Amino acid sequence: KEAQYLTAIRELISKDLSEPYSIYVYRYFLYQWADLCYMVSVVVCKLEPHRDGPMRGYIAMLAVRKEHRGRGIASKLVRMAMDGMIAKDADEIALETEIDNIPSLKLYERLGFLRTKRLHRYYLNGNSAYRMVLYLKEGVALKQTQMPYDPLY
Predict the structure, then answer these.
(1) Which CATH superfamily is domain 40-153 in?
(2) 137, 52, 130, 51: which is closest to 93 by C-alpha?
(3) Could you give the strand order of the β-sheet that contains 129-135, starting from the edge strand earlier in sequence?
(4) pLDDT of 59 strictly over 50
């Protein structure tokens, strides 16, 4: 578990706690009591030009452990991701979510995302998705891209 979590754990704790713990302290706890150490959520994003057009932020993954849901953690993570992308001059932020994931749809719609496309059988499990986009700047939805239309993109 060290390679997977240690860097993230150290970064989080060093930002929020005043004590400068050595790597050995983390290892001491993780190796002996890994079952009592918890990572409850994650958001994974990127920001790059979309088809030579607007700067598009993208929320690739958002997950909150089931037992920690309903506490506003997902909303906070998405807002943090949005703020980070806005600070880097994003024109829009996009994502996909399963069409039957009502809590996810409500979360993103509450934050201003619009359903822009239905993607039939998008996921490996056969479920369809909605592409959702939050337009951050006026006129972004109307911008023309330099690349020809690709229905598979």
Answers:
(1) Gcn5-related N-acetyltransferase (GNAT) (3.40.630.30)
(2) 137
(3) 41-49, 55-64, 92-98, 129-135, 114-119
(4) yes
Q: How far apart are CA 129 and CA 101, in angstroms?
A: 9
The letter for the amino acid at 34 is: A
Residues of the chain with CATH 3.40.630.30: 40-153
Q: Using CA atoms, how far apart are residues 27 and 40, in angstroms rounded to an integer? A: 19
Reduce the DSSP state of residue 43 to 3 states and report it.
Answer: strand
Q: pTM surpassing 0.85?
A: no
C-alpha to C-alpha distance for 123 and 72, rounded to whole angstroms: 26
Span 86-126, pLDDT tens digits = 999 999 999 999 999 999 999 999 999 999 999 999 998 89
If we measure between CA atoms, which residue out of 136, 131, 133 comes closest to residue 151? Answer: 131
Give 78-87 pLDDT, tens digit per residue. 999 999 999 9
- Which one, of 38, 44, 116, lies nearest residue 78 by Cα? 44
Q: Name beta bridge partners: 47.
A: 57
Q: Which of 118, 112, 115, 117 is nearest to 134 (CA)?
A: 112
